[in-house]
Each structure stands twice: as structure tokens, then as C-alpha cells.
Design a protein that fits this description.
Elements (H helix, E strand, L loop, with lengths): L1 H60 L5 H94 L1
Helix pairs in contact: 1-2
Amino acid sequence: MGAVVSALKGVLLAIEHATLQRDALAKAAARVERNLGFAHAQMSQLQGYAADTDTRWTGTATRGVSVELMRHQYQFMDRLQQAIAMQSGVLAQSAVQLEQAKGKLMQAEVRLLGLKQILKTRQTALLRTQRQRQQRHTDEFAAMQHARNRALPMSGEKHDN
């Protein structure tokens, strides 16, 4: 059994390393996905705030407001639209990062599956070799037993004479 483990040690070590790497990539992908969720929530808040402000302003604009207040309102809405545009960029960048993280995770999964398949193949080959060796020993033992059994009657006849 020790020979089997030492023969597979390299593959087992590679599987352990690949598993750790896959787990780290899964955590990174989950973190990027959470960040994307936060970015979506922030975008919704910004858009909601802009819509509410616009609705309030439209209601107020029918009443007489000063030119100065109107200018401030337009500047404020312009800045709010800039923030929404920036957040849109953050969303796009986060989506790209998520796709990249998922791609890396998929590659790690494929690598891990490949290593597990190599392990399975090597285990099967080692077991086959071990069975062949045992069969050879069994055959040799049976042949020696057969030779002894054939030799006994002859030796027994010589002693009787």
C-alpha cells in the first residue's frame, strides 16, 4: 500500500494544490459577484433618487422659483447624471471582472477534473499491475505445488524399493 501511495504522491499533491487554487478562485468570484450586486443596488438608489428629485422639481417648477434656484437644480441634476454615468461604468467593469473570474474558476475546475482523472487512471494501472503480480505469484505457487505433488509419488516409489 505504501508503494501505491508513493507512486501517486505527485498526483495527490497536484490535486491538493489545484483544489486550494480552485477554492481561492471561487471565493474571488463570489466577492466580485457581491461587488456587482452592491454596484447594482447603488445604481438603483442613484436612479431612484434622480427620479424622485425630478418629480419633486417638476411639481415645484410650476410654482414660481428663482432663476438662481433653477440653475442650482440643473447643476445638481447634471452632477447626479454624471454619478449615474460613472456608476454605469463601474457596473460594466464589474461585469467584465465577474466574467473573467468565472472563466478562471472554470479553468481551475477543468484542471482539477483532469488531475482526478489522471489519479483514477494511475490507480487503475497500479491495481492492474498489483493483480498481475499476485496472479503470477499464485501461478508460480501452483506450479511449484504441482511439481512437488508429481515428485512425491516418484520419491515414494524409490523409498519402497
